[in-house]
């Protein structure tokens, strides 16, 4: 029994199994003299630790894992940095070659970690979480209150809180990565946030009476080409700030520059007051900002190669160009009527100023007002003058002809004289 128990114990040790003296045969029997020494020698020969010593299997496993890791690293290096024309015995035997390639490989892996960090931040920020809805509601309340009372400081506070920029950039990143799930998540969050903001601002504007629209509201109902330039530039900085963590501290300024929430709340104010002109004008401004940020994000992420390192660059380029071209087409479609409107406004205002100068040079302080309005589709200059006596007809006719000749933005002129009398005390 003693020989059998000793044989079983040695066999268990050689096979790497743990001892269980209570369940194995020969448990509790005292081994013969010299058995412990023999077992210890056999354990050492088998690579096992003797009783009372720390197991050596952990060190062996760690060494095996290190070898396997280095093997995987070498295989990855072959796929990442060692080109087919470099796979020669001369290079394999060169220490400088391996040091150079390993350094290049480490730079690539570091870039991959940074890209994954960008992807993680934007994908998490684009999720319709409780925090996203909370920030949307609060920023909408702040922006709507600031717009209704005409307070620029309050509106700026809403711009900082608003979370709508992240889903737009996440959408662009999803296009570059070819991640359909991220694209759907970003679009869903953006749509839900947009509808929520419009609904809240519409309810507030319908419940709170206002005498009229203040300049803060009106400024967001007449978009121009400068808004497109600002939105694209801000989108470029916003995308670059997310891709490069060194300048991420400027994102507060970017949020203020882009200003997504105020025009969206202006849309809600127009909806709440059933004013289609206000709602449509602000909606165009919001669309300009949205498309510009999306365009800038796709451009920055593509140029900076914020995509998986093993992705097909031809496919990445195809997806990026598709979004860029589509965004440019949308912006061009918006910019065309906006440009025409801007040109019309510039022509009308410059003509009004020129006409007012002619009137003041000829009549002096007798000119009360000079405004241009559309009457029956024609840009009509409405002039109001005053004085004790009405100017001579030839004077009026001369002024009329001079204004029409020098002011291409005026189609017709209507002059009204208001007789004034000095009242005696």
Could you characterize what this model shows?
The protein is mainly α and 425 residues long. The chain contains 16 helices and three strands. The chain has helices at residues 2-15, 35-45, 57-80, 89-92, 95-125, 130-149, 152-161, 165-177, 180-207, 215-218, 225-243, 251-258, 261-272, 276-303, 313-363, 393-406, and strands at residues 367-375, 378-387, 412-419. Strands 1-2-3 form a three-stranded mixed beta sheet, with helices on one face. Strand 1 and strand 2 (378-387) form a beta hairpin. Helix 6 crosses helix 13 (261-272), helix 7 (152-161) packs across helix 12 and helix 11 packs parallel to helix 14. The longest helix has 51 residues, at 313-363. The protein starts with a helix and ends in a 6-residue tail after the last strand. The model is unreliable at 13-30, 33-38 and 40-50 (pLDDT under 50).
Tell me the layout of helices and strands:
Blueprint: H1 2-15, H2 35-45, H3 57-80, H4 89-92, H5 95-125, H6 130-149, H7 152-161, H8 165-177, H9 180-207, H10 215-218, H11 225-243, H12 251-258, H13 261-272, H14 276-303, H15 313-363, E1 367-375, E2 378-387, H16 393-406, E3 412-419
Parallel strand pairs: 2-3
Antiparallel strand pairs: 1-2
Helix pairs in contact: 1-2, 5-8, 6-7, 6-9, 6-13, 7-12, 8-9, 8-14, 8-15, 9-13, 11-12, 11-14, 13-14, 14-15, 15-16
Tally of alpha and pi helices: 16
Sequence stretches where pLDDT stays below 50 over 5 or more residues: 13-30, 33-38, 40-50
Mean pLDDT: 77
Taking all Cα atoms into account, the compactness measure Rg is: 39 Å
Q: For the largest beta sheet, what order do the strands appear in spatially?
A: 1-2-3
Helix percentage = 55-70%
The ordered H/E elements are: HHHHHHHHHHHHHHHEEHE
Strand content: 5-15%
Q: Which class do the helix and strand fractions yield?
A: mainly alpha
């Amino acid at each position: 029994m003693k020989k059998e128990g000793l044989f079983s114990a040695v066999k268990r040790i050689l096979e790497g199994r743990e001892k269980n003296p209570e369940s194995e045969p020969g448990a509790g029997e005292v081994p013969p003299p010299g058995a412990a020494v023999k077992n210890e020698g056999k354990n050492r020969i088998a690579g096992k630790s003797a009783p009372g010593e720390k197991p050596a299997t952990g060190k062996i496993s760690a060494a095996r894992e290190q070898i396997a890791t280095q093997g995987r690293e070498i295989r990855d290096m072959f796929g990442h940095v060692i080109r087919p024309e470099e796979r020669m015995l001369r290079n394999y035997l060169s220490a400088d070659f391996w040091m150079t390639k390993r350094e290049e490989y480490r730079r690539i892996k570091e870039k991959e970690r940074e890209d994954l960090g960008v992807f993680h931040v934007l994908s998490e920020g684009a999720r319709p979480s409780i925090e996203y809805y909370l920030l949307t509601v609060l920023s909408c309340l702040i922006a709507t209150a600031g717009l209704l009372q005409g307070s620029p400081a309050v509106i700026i506070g809403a711009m900082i809180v608003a979370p709508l920029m992240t889903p737009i950039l996440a959408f662009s990143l999803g296009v570059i990565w070819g991640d359909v799930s991220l694209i759907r998540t970003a679009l869903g969050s953006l749509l839900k946030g947009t509808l929520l903001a419009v609904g809240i601002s519409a309810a507030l504007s319908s419940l709170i009476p206002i005498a009229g629209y203040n300049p803060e509201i009106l400024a967001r109902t007449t978009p121009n080409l400068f808004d497109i330039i600002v939105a694209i530039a801000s989108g470029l900085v916003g995308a670059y700030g997310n891709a490069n963590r060194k300048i991420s501290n400027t994102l507060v300024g970017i949020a203020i520059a882009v200003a997504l929430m105020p025009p969206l709340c202006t849309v809600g104010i127009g909806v709440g007051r059933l004013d289609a002109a206000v709602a449509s004008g602000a909606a165009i401004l919001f669309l300009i900002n949205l498309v510009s940020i999306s365009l800038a994000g796709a451009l920055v992420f593509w140029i900076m190669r914020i995509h998986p390192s093993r992705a097909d660059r031809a496919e990445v380029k195809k997806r990026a160009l598709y979004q860029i071209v589509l965004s440019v087409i949308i912006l061009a479609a918006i910019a065309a009527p906006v440009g025409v409107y801007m040109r019309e406004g510039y022509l009308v205002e410059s003509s009004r100023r020129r006409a007012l100068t002619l009137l003041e040079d000829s009549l002096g302080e007798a000119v009360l007002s000079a405004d241009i309005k559309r009457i029956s589709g024609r840009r009509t200059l409405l002039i109001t003058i005053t004085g004790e006596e009405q100017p001579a007809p030839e004077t009026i006719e001369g002024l009329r002809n001079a204004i029409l000749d020098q002011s291409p933005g005026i189609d017709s002129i209507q002059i009204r004289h208001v007789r004034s009398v000095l009242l005696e005390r």
